[in-house]
Design a protein that fits this description.
single chain; 662 residues; Beta-Lactamase; 29 helices; globular
C-alpha cells in the first residue's frame, strides 16, 4: 500500500509540473522530502522534480545550490544515472539564469557519465540523450549557430515522437518552430508551433500554451496578420498574469507593444513598451533593455519627439558602454543610425549611413537587427533620390536591395524577399525597364505561392494590376538643364515607395489586410474588383500558330485589322513567356494572362482584376486538357477539325462568359 501511495504522489508531481502548477508542486516536494517513511528511490525522483519547479519559478540561485548539495551526497556519488539527472537539471538552471559558459561544461559532464554507463537500458539512454540534445540545441541557439540548433532540436523531436510523452513532445515541437522562425522560414515555423500549441492544450499546460502563443503571435506579425497575432498574445498574457510569470508578461508587453507600433497606435504601444522597460530595469536585464529601446526610439522618431528619442538613445549608450556584447553593440548602432537619419542634415545623413553600414558589414548577423538596418539604409537612399530630384536609382540603393534579398533568402524569410522584390520592381518601373520589372513581380508571385504567403500573394497580384492599369503613374517628369537632362521622381511616386519600404520589415501599418489600401487606390481608377470583362481567348501552337480563337468583341475577330496588328505584338509576348516566364502583361488597356497545357499555350485577354482572371483560367484548364488530344491534330485533319473547332469555340465562349460573371 505504501508503494502505491508513493507512486501516486510522484504521478501527482508530474501532473502539477505538466499543468504549470509550479508553486503547488514545490510545496508538495518539500513535504515529501521531509517524510521519514519515503523510500530513497522516490526521494531521488522528488529531488529532481524540486529542481524543475525551482527553475520554472525562476528561483535560480536556490536551485543551483540545491543541485550542488545533491551532487555531494553519497547516494548520488554511487549512482551515475541519478548524477546525470541532476546535471541535466543543473544545466537548465544555468541556461535560464544566463550562465552560458557553465552550460556546455555541465552538458559534457553528463554526456561523459552516460558514455561510461554500460548497464543502462536503451529506452532510458535515449530519454537522457533527448534531454542533453535539447540542451545542446539551446546552447547553439544562444551562440547564434541556428543551423546547428535546428539539427539538435530536430534530433530531440525525433526521440520525443518515439516515446510520445506529450509535454516533452510539445516542447520539442515548439523549439523546432522557434528556430525555423529565427532563420526566417515562417510557414514551417507556424506549422510546428501550431502543432505544439495543440499538444499543450491537450494536457492543459498553461505555461506551454502561453509560450507558444507568443511565438505564433510573433510570426503572425511578420506575415501581416496583426489582429490574429494580438489575439494569441492577449490569451498568453492573461495566463501569465494569472500565474504571475514575470518573463512571460515581459515578452507579451514587448511583442504587443511592437504590434501596436506597426498598427500606428503609438500611445498604446508606448504604454506597453514602457511597462516592459520598467520590468527589465527592475531586474537590471541589460540585454532585454537594449532590445526594447529600439522600438521606443523608432516610435519617438515617428512622432517627431526628438528629445524622447535622444533620451532613449543616451540610455542605450550606457548599456552599450558597460556591456561588451555584439548584439547590444549592433542595437546601439541601429539606434544611432535611426536618430541621425531623422535629424536630416547633410552631416547627420553621412553618420546615419556609416552606422547602418557598420551593422551590415559586421561578421555577426543577427537577422532582425541586420534587416532593420538595411530597411533604414534603403529609406535613406530613397530620400537622397528625392533631394537630388532624380528618378535614377543610385548604385548604393541597388546594392543594399541585393544584400537584403540575399539576407532574406539565406534566412528563408520569403515574405521579406517578396516585399523587397516588389520594391525593386517599382524602382525599376521608374527607370522605364518594364520587362525587367515584370520579371521581378513574377518572381515575387511565385515565391509567395510556393511558401503559402497568402497576404503577400494577394498584395502583389493587386499591385501588378495597378502597374498594368496605371502605367502612367510611373512615368517620370523630365527636367532639362543647361548641361545634362534629368528625370525627377514625383511626390506621389516617392510616397508610394516609402510605404513599400515600411512593408519590408513591418507589415501593413494600418493593421488591415493588404487589400484594403490597394482597393482604395483601385476605386480611384474606377476598377471593378468583383468581376472581369473577357476580350478574347486564344490557344496557340508551339510554333506560334493560333489554333483556337474565341473573340468576345468584333475587333478581336480573326479577319479584323486590330487583331492583325495585335498578332505582330503577340509574338513578342510569347517569347517573353517562353524565355522569361512573364505570364502577365498588358496591351492597349487590356491584360494578357498566358498559361501552358503540355505543348499548347493559352492566352486569356481581359479587363479586371488579375486574381479573378487567374482563378477563372484554373477552372478552364480541366476542359482544355480533356480536348488536348484533338487540339494537337490540327495539322493532319484541319478540314475535319473545322467543325469541331467551331463547336469548341462556342463552348469556351459560354464557359468564359459564365465564369466572368460568377
Amino acid at each position: 500500500m505504501r508503494e502505491i501511495q508513493e507512486g501516486n504522489e510522484v504521478k501527482l508531481l508530474e501532473r502539477l509540473f505538466q499543468t504549470s502548477q509550479f508553486h503547488e508542486g514545490l510545496k508538495l516536494c518539500q513535504e515529501m522530502l521531509q517524510d521519514q517513511l519515503l523510500s530513497s528511490a522516490v526521494k531521488q525522483k522528488v529531488a529532481i522534480f524540486k529542481l524543475r519547479f525551482l527553475e520554472k519559478l525562476e528561483y535560480y540561485e536556490e536551485g543551483i545550490n540545491s543541485a550542488h548539495d545533491l551532487l555531494k551526497t553519497p547516494p548520488v556519488l554511487k549512482n551515475s544515472l541519478y548524477r546525470t539527472d541532476i546535471l541535466i537539471e543543473l544545466t537548465k538552471l544555468y541556461f535560464s539564469s544566463g550562465q552560458i559558459k557553465l552550460v556546455i561544461r555541465t552538458i559534457q559532464r553528463a554526456e561523459e557519465l552516460l558514455y561510461h554507463n554500460k548497464s543502462i537500458e536503451t529506452e532510458e539512454l535515449e530519454q537522457k540523450m533527448a534531454e542533453l540534445v535539447l540542451l545542446r540545441g539551446g546552447y547553439e541557439w544562444q551562440q547564434g549557430e541556428l543551423e546547428n540548433a535546428l539539427f539538435f532540436f530536430k534530433f530531440n523531436l525525433e526521440l520525443r515522437r518515439k516515446y510520445n510523452h506529450l509535454l516533452d513532445l510539445a516542447h520539442a515541437l515548439n523549439n523546432v518552430g522557434v528556430i525555423y522562425n529565427a532563420i526566417g522560414n515562417l510557414s514551417k515555423a507556424l506549422t510546428y508551433l501550431k502543432e505544439a500549441y495543440t499538444e499543450y492544450e491537450k494536457i492543459k499546460s498553461t505555461r506551454g500554451i502561453s509560450k507558444t502563443g507568443y511565438n505564433i503571435g510573433a510570426i503572425l506579425i511578420q506575415m501581416g496578420e496583426l489582429d490574429e497575432s494580438l489575439e494569441y498574445m492577449r490569451k498568453s498574457l492573461q495566463i501569465d498574469e494569472k500565474d504571475n510569470y514575470h518573463e512571460g508578461i515581459r515578452v507579451a508587453l514587448q511583442n504587443m507593444g511592437e504590434v501596436y507600433w506597426h498598427k500606428g497606435q503609438y500611445d498604446r504601444a508606448l504604454e506597453l513598451l514602457t511597462k516592459c522597460m520598467s520590468m527589465v530595469e527592475e531586474k537590471d536585464q541589460h540585454f532585454e533593455m537594449s532590445e526594447v529601446y529600439i522600438p521606443l526610439i523608432a516610435i519617438h522618431i515617428e512622432q517627431n519627439n526628438e528629445s524622447a528619442a535622444y533620451q532613449c538613445l543616451t540610455k542605450l549608450y550606457r548599456i552599450y558602454f558597460n556591456n561588451p556584447n555584439k548584439v547590444i553593440a549592433q542595437r546601439y548602432w541601429l539606434g544611432k543610425g535611426m536618430f541621425f537619419k531623422y535629424l536630416d542634415t547633410h552631416q547627420s545623413r553621412i553618420k546615419a549611413e556609416y552606422y547602418l553600414t557598420q551593422i551590415i558589414q559586421d561578421e555577426m548577423r543577427y537577422f532582425d537587427i541586420t534587416a532593420m538596418a538595411m530597411v533604414e539604409l534603403t529609406d535613406l537612399y530613397l530620400e537622397k533620390m528625392k533631394k537630388d530630384s532624380t528618378s535614377k536609382m543610385p548604385s548604393s540603393l541597388s546594392r543594399v536591395l541585393e544584400q537584403m534579398i540575399t539576407l532574406a533568402l539565406h534566412n528563408h524569410s520569403y515574405s521579406m524577399t517578396a516585399e523587397v522584390l516588389l520594391l525593386k520592381a517599382k524602382l525599376i518601373f521608374l527607370q522605364g525597364e518594364i520587362g525587367h520589372a515584370h520579371e521581378l513581380l513574377q518572381k515575387a508571385i511565385r515565391l509567395a505561392e510556393e511558401h503559402d504567403l497568402e497576404r503577400i500573394h494577394v498584395k502583389i497580384i493587386q499591385e501588378l494590376d495597378e502597374f498594368l492599369e496605371k502605367s502612367a503613374f510611373w512615368q517620370v517628369e523630365l527636367i532639362t538643364g543647361d548641361q545634362n537632362p534629368n528625370s525627377k521622381i514625383s511626390s506621389n511616386q516617392y510616397n508610394t515607395l516609402k510605404e513599400q519600404i515600411k512593408s519590408i520589415f513591418a507589415p501593413d501599418q494600418s493593421g488591415n489586410s493588404a487589400s484594403t489600401n490597394l482597393n482604395s487606390l483601385s476605386s480611384l481608377s474606377g476598377i471593378n474588383r468583383e468581376s472581369i470583362k473577357p476580350e478574347c481567348f486564344l490557344l496557340i501552337s508551339p510554333q506560334g500558330r493560333v489554333i483556337l480563337q474565341t473573340p468576345f468583341h468584333s475587333k478581336w475577330e480573326a479577319d479584323s485589322l486590330y487583331f492583325s496588328i495585335f498578332q505582330i505584338n503577340l509574338m513578342g509576348f510569347l517569347q517573353d513567356f517562353v524565355a522569361k516566364g512573364i505570364d502577365i502583361t498588358s496591351y492597349e488597356g487590356v491584360k494578357l494572362h498566358f498559361f501552358k497545357i503540355k505543348e499548347i499555350i493559352g492566352c486569356f485577354i481581359y479587363q479586371g482584376p488579375l486574381s479573378i482572371a487567374v482563378k477563372k483560367v484554373e477552372e478552364l484548364l480541366p476542359r482544355i486538357e480533356e480536348y488536348y488530344p484533338r487540339l494537337t491534330q490540327f495539322k493532319e485533319f484541319e478540314a475535319q477539325q473545322r467543325g469541331f473547332m467551331n463547336l469548341l469555340q462556342q463552348e469556351f465562349y459560354f464557359l468564359i462568359t459564365s465564369l466572368s460573371s460568377a
